[in-house]
Amino acid sequence: MTKIVFIRPDSEAVEVTAKVGDSIMHAALANQVPGILAECGGSMACATCHIYVDEEWLSKLNPPSSMENEMLDATASERRDNSRLCCQIEVSDRLDGIRVRIPESQI
User: What's the structural domain count of the chain?
Assistant: First the structure.
């Protein structure tokens, strides 16, 4: 199991574990992490699973696809250099302990 730390807008940390191969979004939904809406269920059609990946973890991720890049332009909260859709990040052993921040708003 891989540990994922979600930092809420109020700075509260929510730690969850996920199976390798799942998405960070699925881990958030399975653990009822507040602030990850995922209205489209991971089909990359809504941008309501927007997160900010802590800088130290960015190099461990595959770069966003062109489609993810387009969806990131439609996020409710400010898009930043470390913005990602968590439906597009696959959990792996190398991500154990990853820290991601949940934006103020998803809609």
Answer: 1
Report DSSP letters for 62-104, one per residue: PPPPHHHHHHHTT-SSPP-TTEEEGGG-B--GGGTTEEEE--S
Helix, strand, or coil (residue 31): coil
**Host domain of residue 44:** 2-101
CATH number at residue 17: 3.10.20.30
For residues 83 and 50, the answer to whether their CB atoms sit within 8 Å is yes
- For position 3, what pLDDT does the model report? 98
What b/e string do you get for 83-104 counting C-beta neighbours within 10 Å, with b at 16 or more?
Answer: bbbbbbbebeeebeebbbbbbe
75 Cα distance to chain centroid: 13
Residue 11's pLDDT is: 97
Its sign, for the CA torsion 92, 93, 98, 102, is positive
Average pLDDT in the 13-25 region?
98
